[in-house]
Design goal:
The complex is a heterodimer of chains A (251) and B (192). Chain A is of the alpha/beta class. Helix content of chain A is 37%, strand content 24%. In chain A, strands 1-3-4-5-6-9-10-11 form an 8-stranded parallel beta barrel, surrounded by 7 helices. The longest helix of chain A has 15 residues. The chains are: A alpha/beta (251), B alpha/beta (192). Chain A: Heterodimer of HisH and HisF.
Chain lengths: 251, 192
């Protein structure tokens, strides 16, 4: 049986992990390679690296990071953040990334999804969608949820599937950072509308939130950052709890 | 140990190279038939779309080289699928090593299958000293169970997670991304 995936997300700036990381025994808490290995050892099913740097060397630094992670890590990982061209993706995949996630660039130029799928295959193209609820329903937002678009979340999700995306990473900006649980209602609706895997993101604060998003939200995977980084939830404990609830996980 | 990873331009092969490096084996990437023929072990990787990958194999003449290899050959993911008779993906003929046609998952399951699933019914030296365990998969097409099946996996239905015939082996999953368990499978391949 295919298991539900637990995916820690690491924010990267200039080749280093940012946001406090609470692993006391890490030699270097800012070293993405060491942190990635730690998560893999703890039972993470996949990792996401989100690059938030905005320097001219960004592309080169990220490529080096991907190479260094791929050299050590024996589980899959996705790289996202500012990816906007076929060439960007080519560099990351050649350096050892398993998947890439695109967000704003897909909204601005939806044909990019088709181009990437044609060249690299659906299996490595994740489309990340940030959305929040407005008076007109759930709308896709850009720039970390700050800039609204006219795009309806559910229409856009169907479109990215039709264009060939292999997976959708949905972040509810209304839930992100609240630690009150994932947007399970919207996630369940997404899962009924598309037939590609949906990753839940935004709102993780307790083990029960993961249980809910897999059962009520019908999510195929759940992504979180701070609850893992600050050791509020340990992955082995989380997985054991999920298994007790009858959710298939890899232990 | 001389190990060659066939490099025919179909997808990311860096992670396979790294996986063997972690096992202490330095793999050579090549599309040169002479280099491939002389290797003790050969890896036939592949990600992406089947018909365009077959086109690349034909352009480089590797489509006639691979089926005649005598040393152990391991196809991974799309590599395994291309070793079959045919694939529904892009309606392409395959290399005809495994006597089975690759078809698409039905829409009663999410497609692609992405994530960790368990392999079962292990029956090959490739899985020596290994119990059923989780492996990482990403695929939309699959080989149905057939005589050459050496491991199965269940996703909506039971299908072939690995195939073997003579010196040819194929795995649908990514051993290079399947943790320590996957590393052990690669190590077993090196010991064949």
């Amino acid at each position: 049986m295919l298991t539900k995936r637990i995916i820690p997300c690491l924010d990267i700036k200039d080749g280093r992990t940012v946001k406090g990381v609470n692993f006391v025994d890490l030699r270097d808490a800012g070293d993405p390679v060491e942190l990635a290995q730690r998560y893999a050892d703890e039972g993470a099913d996949e990792l996401v690296f989100l690059d938030i740097s905005a320097t001219e060397q960004k592309r080169k630094t990220l490529a080096e990071l991907v190479y260094n992670v791929a050299e050590k890590l024996n589980i899959p990982f996705t790289v996202g953040g500012g990816i906007s061209s076929v060439e960007d993706v080519d560099i990351l995949l050649k350096n050892g990334a398993d998947k890439v996630s695109i967000n704003s660039s897909a909204v601005k130029n939806p044909d990019l999804i088709n181009e990437l799928v044609a060249k690299f295959g659906s299996q490595c193209i994740v489309v990340a969608i940030d959305a929040r609820k407005t008076d007109d329903g759930w709308k896709v937002h850009l720039v970390g949820g700050k800039v609204p678009t006219e795009l309806d979340l559910f229409d856009w999700a169907k479109e990215v599937e039709q264009r060939g995306a292999g997976e959708i990473l949905f972040t509810s900006m209304d839930h992100d950072g609240t630690k009150n649980g994932f947007a399970d209602g919207e996630l369940a609706k997404l899962s009924s509308l598309v037939n590609i895997p949906v990753i839940a993101s935004g709102g993780a604060g307790a083990v029960s939130h993961f249980t809910n998003t897999f059962i009520k939200g019908k999510a195929d995977a759940a992504l979180a950052a701070s609850v893992f980084h600050f050791k509020e939830i340990a992955i082995p404990d989380l997985k054991q709890q999920l298994e007790k609830e009858g959710i298939p996980v890899r232990i | 140990m001389s190990l060659v990873i066939i490099d025919y331009g179909a997808g990311n092969i860096q992670s396979i190279k790294f996986a063997f490096q972690r096992l202490g084996v330095s793999a050579v990437l090549s599309n040169d038939p002479e280099v491939i023929r002389k290797a003790e072990k050969v890896i036939f990787p592949g990600v992406g779309e089947a018909s365009s990958a077959m086109r690349k194999l034909r352009e480089s003449g590797l489509d006639t080289v691979i089926p005649t290899l005598k040393q152990p050959v391991l196809g991974i993911c799309l590599g395994m699928q291309l070793m079959c008779n045919a694939s529904e993906e892009g309606n392409t003929k395959g290399l005809g090593i495994f006597d089975v046609d690759v078809i698409k998952f039905d829409s009663n399951v999410k497609v692609p299958q992405i994530g960790w699933n368990k392999i079962e019914n292990l029956q090959s030296p490739l899985f020596k000293n290994l119990e059923n365990d989780f492996i990482y998969l990403v695929h939309s097409f699959y080989a149905p169970k057939c005589e050459e099946t050496i491991a199965t996996c269940t996703y909506g239905l039971e299908y072939a997670a690995a195939l073997a015939k003579d010196n040819f082996y194929g795995v649908q999953f990514h051993p290079e991304k399947s943790g320590q368990y996957g590393a052990q499978i690669l190590n077993n391949f090196l010991s064949l």
